[in-house]
Amino acid sequence: MPAYKAPLRDISFVMNELLESEKLYQNLPGYEEATADLMNAIVEEGAKFAENVLSPLNQSGDEEGCHWSEEGVTTPQGFAEAYKQYVENGWPALSASVEDGGQGMPNLLGIVINEMAGTANWSWLMYPGLSHGAVKTIEEHGDPEQKHRYLTKLVQGEWTGTMCLTEAHCGSDLGLLRTKAEPRADGSYAITGTKIFISAGDHDMADNIVHIVLARLPDAPAGTKGISLFIVPKVNVNEDGSLGERNAVTCASIEKKMGIKASATCVMNFDGATGYLIGPPNRGLNCMFTFMNTARIGTAIQGLAHGQLAYTGALAYAKERLAMRSLTGPKNPDGPADPIIVHPNVRRMLLTQKAFVEGSRAFLYFLAQQGDIVDAGNEEQAKAADDLMALLTPIGKAFVTETGYEAANIGVQVYGGHGFIREWGMEQIVRDARISMLYEGTTGIQALDLLGRKVIGSGGKLLLGFTSIIDEFCAANEGAEFVSELKAYKDEWLGLSMKIGEAAMQNPDEAGSASVDYLMYSGYVTLAYFWARMALVAQRKIEEAQGDVSFYEAKLMTARFYYERLLPRTVSLKQTMLSGADNLMQMPEALFEF
To answer: Is position 593 annotated as part of the catalytic site?
Structure first.
C-alpha cells in the first residue's frame, strides 16, 4: 500500500491562489478568522495526522476487517485509538458552529481535512464521516430540545451519527420502505423495522451512535409523501444529557464486502426502539436531503481520495521500475533498462490520473466554498450559491467518483502484474473506490437528478447560473489559452441541454436514455472550466516569476493534456446522448433472454 503523503502544495494552490479563500472569508460574517496562515497551519496538522496515524492502518485494517458479536461490532486494531486521538485533537468540531461546541471554521477546511484523512484511510473516515450530515440535519430541522440533547456530543465527536434509509426490498426507491413509527403517550415513537447498508451502524469507537431514521407513521400516505424522519439513539439519553439504558437497536450482522472492509456496513434491527420525530410529519425525505446532500459531497471526495492515492503509488513505481529502453534512446544508460516513466503510454496513464485528481480538487473545493456562502452570505449570495450547489452536487458526486475509479484502475495498470498482487495495495484502492459510485445515489440516480430535476425541471435556470459564470470568465480573459475552446464547449452544452429537453417533452425515456452520458459530458466541461482557471493563474505566476515556476509549468502542461486528451471524450458522449431512446427501449423484454 502506498504510504500517504499529503499534496500540500496543490492543496495550498487551490485554496489560496485559485479560490482566494482568505479574500472570500474576510467578507463572510463569522469566518473572518479564517486567514490563509491559520488555514494553512490547520491543513499541515491535518496532514500529519493522516500520514502518521491513519495511513499505517489502511492495509492492516483491510486485512483484519471488522468483528461482529451479539455484544456489538469491534473495529480493526488501532482504529479506536486513532479515533480517540482524532477527538482529542478537535478535528470533528473544526467546521461546526461555535454555538454547538464547534470551532466555527469554514466547511472548506472540513472538506480538506476529510480529503487527507480519507486518502490515508477511507474505511476509518467512514466512522466519523456521516456525523457531519447528522449534525447538519439536526441543526436545520431539530427542535431546541433535540439540538440541546444531541448536537454538542455529535459535534465534538463523543458520539457519532448514521443515516438509516435503505431496506432490503426497496434500495433507492424509498417510497417502498416499511419501517414503522408508532406514537407513544410521552411524545416519543416506537420504531420497528430493518435497515441495510448502514455505514458505521455499530462500532466500538464512541459512547453513543445517533441514528437518523426514515419511517412511516400509522396514518401516512403511500409513497415518498408518507415518510417521516426520526432520531433514534443507540443508547437512550436522559434529560440531563447523561446516557441511560440501551435502546432497542441492534446490529444483526455486518456485510462481507468487496472493499472498505474495515468499515462496518451493518444490518440494523429496530425492535420498537425509542425514536423522536425530527421535522414535520410526512416530510422526512425533504429533511433527509439535508443529510444526503452533505453525504454526496463527502462521497465525491472519495473519488478524489482514491484517485490521489493511486496516483501517489503509480508515480513512485513508474520512477523506480526499470523496463525496456526509451524509444528515443536510453535515459538510464548506466542501468539495465529505463524507468517506465519514460514510455509514452505510462505518461498517458499518469497524466490522466493527475488531470482528474487536480481538476476534481479544484471543483470540490469550489463546491465546499459555495456551502460556506449558503451558510454565511447575504440572501442574494446564499441563493446563488445554493442554486450552484443544486446543479453541481450530482455532477461532483457522480463524475468525480467515476473518474476517481478510473484513476484507481490506472494505478493497477501502471504496476502491471504487481498491481494485481495484494501486498502492493493497489488492488485495495480499486476495491475501496468501487462503492463510491453506488452509495449516496448511484451514477444513474445522480444523472436523472441532474438532467431531469435540475436542468429540465428548472427550465434551464440552474444550468444558466453556472454557464453565466463561465461566460464571465471567458469575457474577462479573452485571448488566454483555453478560453475560446471553453466557450465553445459551454455553448454546445447549452445546445445539447435544449435538444434533450425538447425530446424529453415528447418522450420522457429520452431523458433517461441520455442522462448518464449527459452527466459525464457535463463533468468534462465543468473540469475544463477549472483547468482553464488554473492555467490562467499558473501562466500569470510564470510571467511574474513568482514562487516555484516548475509547479506552475506542470499545471499548464497538465491543462494542455486535459484539453487535448481527455476533454475530446465529449465527442462520443454527444453522439451517444443524441442517439435517442429507441436503441435502448425497442427490444422486448423477452428478447433479453439467452
So the answer is: no
